[in-house]
């Protein structure tokens, strides 16, 4: 049940906050061994918070919209006093003495934190298989990956182990797992949500995003986490927005563009079918769809890989064993301590990106790679800008491939990274994107559609997604066995 | 014999005296308990983000303007990546491609000669932590109090041709920064540090390969290191060896420099724009406002002293060497209306006393108005200049009022004729031979007698009246 319904039940006393949290914790304890969404479950704290909210409800205090709703966070979002690992050996025992800006907000608004969710190590991956701790299964079929890097977040929402979740999206890490698990995932415009307390992967691309059961929940959660944070210098100075005000069931006259390159870049036939059907739905609902061309598409991946790896190589340099995190104790001399610590603390995928990033920034290669990538970034921005002068929304698949099985791609970094191709372009351009369920493939696994909006035009994205959702039933379909994989 | 000359450029690091650090709100206080001024941001904890301290930008712009630089309307922070335990994030936030100020100059003087030294750039950056080694030498303690303290790096062009010029440049930079109040520039606390680039060339030729000298913690070290490195390079060239491009560490106790361990690719800092920080914007209006707040600079002040107080360039230069001294001087000069005497006492007797007492420059234990009152006592003929020196000595000792010291010590001038006549007759009685010499035409003997009489008065006799009375007495018979 989505949170907007639960909220009403909580307010109408049909359901108690403690009862709700208890039922979530029960479900977690029943399903976790099969699903593996969580790295840490904070049951005691959750119940405590739920009791606090219930006391307020009982005394008739007016509470914020999402008070009492259980939520879980991707494990790269810092939580004061609660282990935050980035699913890495490096931070296996790291307990931050501070909370991320979003975690503070959730707490202030009375939301109940259930725990921390599995992910690819340091958010690098597309299947959550690079987690140091465990695999997360796709609730629709345990043979399949939940997507990544926020696989834990998507699987938790999809399987009912959390009502809502937050993830982080550097190249698609919210939207791709949302698509794979059949939930709604939004990456807002860069600067909308504070990055303070989000353990950085690539600072110029990272943005915290939402994973929810439907579009209304997405709007509710966005309204809570969006807003200016003076302690994040890249946060946009904006007033509070109530995104639910955009939820109109009406897209008459909306101009939707579909770049033909998005359908031709090795895009799976099943995925294409779903997208074309969604296009027809849009047309039926009064929108006008146009095929356009974005020739820059072929440069999305190289630009994304170079920029994200470059920034990651610098962001992850602080994990050196000196102050916190893992330290190899068998060393003589500082050089060896660094070497052993970082060799053992990071797994191959992270090391691969650090090495690529170090390479593209090194003198002699900087101009050929990093500088070029920044130039491509400007071109990508410009092509999107040009498209948005004529169209309201750009539509396409979230990823070219459909949901894949465990082990299918883990050893093929090129193939797995192609999964980010469409989503990552919006991170490069700083644009908002949303993944909405739009069908199923021949394995009966969910397929998502990707809608891209203008800067700070989450409103139009939400309205479009909401209208689609109100007139289709994909979001109502549940994973078999109630999500218990 | 081939004549060589050094080509010297300086990189001066000055800690800005903002109350808080550059990217967090921790205090910058020097000498606090180890690791008491730090937070997750300056410790580089995961997920933390920098927020630029506007004051640091203001101070950097002020420094740049005081050194005749152009202020960039938009500058940028970059990351300088390298691993070292004193660097919490394993990168330093600094300015690489687009510093806040560029293209300035300052004037240095070497005796009567003046020289313009160009400033290539002024950049803002964060300081690193401080490594302390325990007595056994096996453990290293990292003190993060200094991590994130704002710094400016002032980079000169290689315009200096001697150790003396380099020292003079550093002194001028220090004077300017202290004048405008953006840094306390205490080399002993590390709030002013300099790296020196040196190469040598035959006079008139192009400069050779340069080396960089680090760890110069005093003016003396700068001078000595330059001389030593110059000789080393000349020695290499003369013996047909090549000068290697390297960074060397100066050991001031041993008086030698040693090459710093060059790690593989150690100089590849992989600079790139820091994605956590937006461009630093300094509007024309803001720059102008900062310019208006710049106090009078040393050379402007010097010109004014020479013009208004009719002081020599030498004196004006001495008086403007520090803000404290110039402020002290101005009070004394204005209150006494006698800038010459104020200047003479400050640069003469007071400088001597301060040196003797090892007082830091400008650290005068009393105010300029006290000196003015002392000058008044001399000018009103209440005490002699000799007595004034005694009073000064005691003022340093006890900080008492000059009048009080004069009274207690009985230093007033004796101008009373009767009292003086008595001294004179006593003096004559004891020096009959000299009196006789005078009367026989040995006019010089008068001076001798005046000296004797003055001594008898304990230096207090009014010299003019004493002289007149003595002459009258001598010429009597
Ligand atoms: Zn701090």
List strands and helices in order, with pairings.
The complex is a heterodimer of chains A (485) and B (477).
Chain A: H1 3-11, H2 17-35, E1 38-41, H3 43-58, E2 70-74, H4 101-108, E3 112-117, H5 151-159, E4 164-169, H6 175-181, E5 184-187, E6 207-212, H7 215-225, E7 255-259, H8 260-264, H9 269-284, E8 288-292, H10 300-315, H11 334-345, H12 348-361, H13 367-390, E9 393-397, H14 413-418, H15 421-429, E10 433-440, E11 446-452, H16 458-470
Parallel strand pairs in A: 2-3, 2-4, 7-8, 7-9
Antiparallel strand pairs in A: 1-3, 4-6, 5-6, 5-10, 9-11, 10-11
Chain B: E1 4-15, H1 54-66, E2 70-71, E3 74-75, E4 78-81, E5 91-94, E6 101-110, E7 113-126, E8 130-133, E9 140-143, E10 150-156, H2 163-179, E11 192-202, E12 211-216, H3 219-238, E13 247-251, E14 256-259, E15 272-273, E16 280-281, H4 284-292, H5 298-308, H6 313-319, H7 323-336, H8 339-356, H9 368-379, H10 385-398, H11 402-409, H12 417-430, H13 432-439, H14 445-456, H15 463-475
Parallel strand pairs in B: 12-13
Antiparallel strand pairs in B: 1-10, 1-11, 2-6, 3-16, 4-5, 4-15, 6-7, 7-10, 8-9, 11-12, 13-14
Helix pairs in contact in B: 2-3, 5-6, 6-8, 7-8, 7-9, 8-10, 9-10, 12-14, 12-15, 13-14, 14-15
Bound molecules: zinc ion (ZN).
Summarize the structure.
Chain A is α/β, with parallel strands linked by helices and 485 residues long.
Explain this structure to me?
The complex is a heterodimer of chains A (485) and B (477). With 485 residues, chain A is of the alpha/beta class. Chain A has one domain: Amidase signature (AS) enzymes. Chain A is built from 16 helices and 11 strands. In chain A, α4 links the parallel β2 and β3. The longest helix of chain A has 24 residues. The two termini of chain A are 18 Å apart. The relative contact order of chain A is 0.14. The mean pLDDT of chain A is 95. Chain B is an alpha+beta fold and 477 residues long. Chain B folds into 3 domains: 286 residues, no CATH class; 114 residues, no CATH class; 60 residues, Arc Repressor Mutant, subunit A. Chain B has 15 helices and 16 strands. Chain B has a 9-stranded mixed β-sheet. In chain B, α12 crosses α14. The relative contact order of chain B is 0.09. At the A-B interface, α10 of A face loops of B. The structure holds zinc ion. Zinc ion (ZN) binds next to loops of chain B.
């Amino acid at each position: 049940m989505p949170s907007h319904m639960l909220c009403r039940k909580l307010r109408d006393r049909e359901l108690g906050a403690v009862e709700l949290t208890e039922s979530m914790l029960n479900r977690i304890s029943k399903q976790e061994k099969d699903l593996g969404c969580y790295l840490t479950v904070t049951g005691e704290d959750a119940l405590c918070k739920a009791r606090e909210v219930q006391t307020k409800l009982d005394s008739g205090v007016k509470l914020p919209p999402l008070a009492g709703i259980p939520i879980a966070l991707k494990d790269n979002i810092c939580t004061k006093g609660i282990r935050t690992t980035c699913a890495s050996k490096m931070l296996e025992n790291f307990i931050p003495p501070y909370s991320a800006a979003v975690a503070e907000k959730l707490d202030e608004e009375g939301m109940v934190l259930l725990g921390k969710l599995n992910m690819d190590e340091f958010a690098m991956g597309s299947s959550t298989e690079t987690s140091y701790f465990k695999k997360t299964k796709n609730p629709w079929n345990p043979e399949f990956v939940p997507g990544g890097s926020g696989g834990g977040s998507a699987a938790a929402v999809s399987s009912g182990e959390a009502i809502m979740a937050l993830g982080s999206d550097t190249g698609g890490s919210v939207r791709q797992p949302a698509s794979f698990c059949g939930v709604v995932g939004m990456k807002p415009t860069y600067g909308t949500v504070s990055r303070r307390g989000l353990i950085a992967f690539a600072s110029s691309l990272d943005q915290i995003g939402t994973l929810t059961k439907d579009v209304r929940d997405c709007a509710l959660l966005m309204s809570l986490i969006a807003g200016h944070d003076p302690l994040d210098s890249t946060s946009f100075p904006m007033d509070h927005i109530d995104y639910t005000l955009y939820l109109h069931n009406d897209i008459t006259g909306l101009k939707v563009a579909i770049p033909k390159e998005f359908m031709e870049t090795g895009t799976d036939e099943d995925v294409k079918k779903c997208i074309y059907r969604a296009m027809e739905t849009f047309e039926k609902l009064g929108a006008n769809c146009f095929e356009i061309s974005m020739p820059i598409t072929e440069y999305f991946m190289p630009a994304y890989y170079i920029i994200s790896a470059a920034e990651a190589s610098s962001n992850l340099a602080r994990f050196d064993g000196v102050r916190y995190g893992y330290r190899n104790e068998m060393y003589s001399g500082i050089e060896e301590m660094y070497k052993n610590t970082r060799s053992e603390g990071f797994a191959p995928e992270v090391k691969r990106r650090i090495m690529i990033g170090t390479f593209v920034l090194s003198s002699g290669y900087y101009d050929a790679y990093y500088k070029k990538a920044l130039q491509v970034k400007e071109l990508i921005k410009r092509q999107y800008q040009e498209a948005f002068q004529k169209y309201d929304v750009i539509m396409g698949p979230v990823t070219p491939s459909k949901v894949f099985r465990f082990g299918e791609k883990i050893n093929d970094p090129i193939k797995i990274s192609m999964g980010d191709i469409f989503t990552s372009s919006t991170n490069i351009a700083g644009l908002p994107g949303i993944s909405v369920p739009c069908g199923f493939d021949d394995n009966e696994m969910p397929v998502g559609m990707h809608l891209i909006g203008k800067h700070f035009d989450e409103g139009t994205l939400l309205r479009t997604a909401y209208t689609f959702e109100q007139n289709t039933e994909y979001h109502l379909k549940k994973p078999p066995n109630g999500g218990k994989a | 014999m081939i004549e060589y000359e050094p080509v010297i450029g300086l990189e001066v690091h000055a800690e800005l005296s903002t109350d808080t650090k550059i990217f967090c709100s921790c205090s910058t206080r020097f000498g606090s308990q180890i690791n008491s001024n730090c937070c997750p941001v300056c410790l580089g904890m995961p997920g933390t983000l920098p927020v630029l301290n506007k004051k640091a930008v203001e101070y950097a712009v002020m420094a740049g303007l005081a050194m005749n630089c152009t202020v960039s309307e938009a500058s940028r922070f970059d990351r300088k990546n390298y691993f070292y335990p004193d660097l919490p994030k394993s990168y330093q936030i600094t300015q690489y491609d687009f510093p806040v100020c560029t293209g300035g100059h300052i004037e240095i003087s070497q005796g009567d000669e003046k020289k313009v030294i160009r400033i290539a750039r002024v950049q803002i950056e964060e300081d690193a932590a401080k490594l302390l080694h325990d007595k056994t030498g096996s453990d290293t303690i990292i003190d993060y109090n200094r991590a994130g303290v704002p710094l400016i790096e002032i980079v000169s062009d290689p315009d200096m041709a001697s150790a003396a010029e380099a020292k003079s440049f550093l002194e001028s930079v220090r004077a300017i920064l202290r004048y405008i109040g953006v840094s306390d520039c205490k080399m002993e606390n590390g709030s002013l540090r300099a790296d020196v680039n040196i190469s040598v060339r035959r006079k008139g030729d192009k400069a050779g390969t340069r080396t960089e000298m680090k760890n110069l913690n005093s003016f003396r070290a700068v001078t000595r290191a330059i001389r030593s490195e110059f000789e080393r390079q000349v020695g290499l060239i003369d013996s047909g060896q090549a000068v290697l491009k390297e960074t060397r560490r100066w050991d001031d106790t041993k008086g030698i420099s040693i090459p710093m361990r060059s790690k593989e690719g150690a100089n590849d800092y992989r600079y790139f724009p820091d994605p956590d920080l937006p461009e630093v914007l300094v509007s024309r209006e803001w720059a102008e406002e900062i310019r208006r707040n710049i106090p009078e600079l040393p050379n402007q002040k010097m010109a004014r002293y020479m013009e208004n107080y009719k002081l020599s360039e030498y004196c004006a230069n001495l008086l403007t060497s520090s803000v404290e001294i110039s402020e002290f001087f101005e009070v004394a000069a204005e209150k006494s209306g006698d800038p010459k005497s104020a200047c003479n006492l400050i640069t003469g007797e007071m400088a001597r006393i301060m040196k003797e007492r090892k007082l830091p420059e400008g650290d005068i234990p009393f105010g300029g108005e006290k000196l003015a009152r002392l000058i008044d006592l001399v000018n009103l003929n209440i005490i002699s200049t000799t007595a004034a020196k005694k009073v000064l000595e005691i003022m340093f000792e006890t900080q008492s009022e000059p009048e009080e010291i004069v009274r207690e010590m009985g230093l007033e001038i004796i101008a009373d004729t009767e009292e003086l006549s008595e001294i004179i007759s006593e003096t004559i009685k004891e020096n009959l031979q000299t009196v006789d010499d005078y009367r026989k035409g040995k006019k010089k003997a008068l001076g001798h007698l005046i000296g004797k009489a003055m001594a008898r008065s304990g230096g207090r006799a009014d010299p003019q009246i004493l002289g007149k009375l003595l002459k009258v007495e001598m010429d009597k018979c």
